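Attaching the record inline, Q. Sequence:
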Amino acid sequence: MNMIYLIDSFFNLLFPKSCVVCSGALAKGEEGVCIICNSRMPRTNYHLQSDNEVEQRFWGKAEVERATSFFFYNKGSDYNRILHHLKYLGDKGLGEVMGRCMGKELLASGFFQGIDLIVPVPLHPKKKRKRGYNQSEWIAQGLSRATGIPVKSDLLTRIDDGSSQTRKSVFERWENVRNAFHVNPNVEIKGKHLLLIDDVLTTGATLVSCAVILTEQADAKVSVATLAVA
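Structure, as predicted:
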């Protein structure tokens, strides 16, 4: 028997991996979220609906081809632990797992049809150094594995100070990201269809700012997908 498999099995026996939602031990083949919690996840299924609630958040603000979020971020929900682990507990691999899960479920609907590149929303370099990674990049990598669409992480750069949006009012969030991003002039994306990826959609200010600069300055088409929507 493979020695690496034996070591891994022994380690999991001593320190079993647990579901980030219910904290129960994960069975063999389960990743991040157990099959029961996965089946009960509050999915939006917005990818099956045109003019859905997520798309409506961009109306009159940015030209977006289509938009969706995978599950609902509800106050007090155990499923919020997914984002907490991903953003604040260093569980970057969970982003890849959830991105792959979302990609596989949305694939059959045709949501990814015509998409040329997956573009994660960037963090400011100072925030990325502090956290050690960009959670949206890991979600994007999971989506790429599920769909075969390449990721372009160096297309957008965040050029403001990257101050947190968490405690800001709606107006302050819009002001904070109005001119926050820069497009890499060395990447040719004119006429391409880009899929913007972020972890959670709240006011939509960050994603609108990204979409506007890509559609108006870079002459690209943009769609949006996030792991969760508040």
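The chain has nine helices and six strands. Residues 92-107 form the longest helix (16 residues).

More tomorrow.
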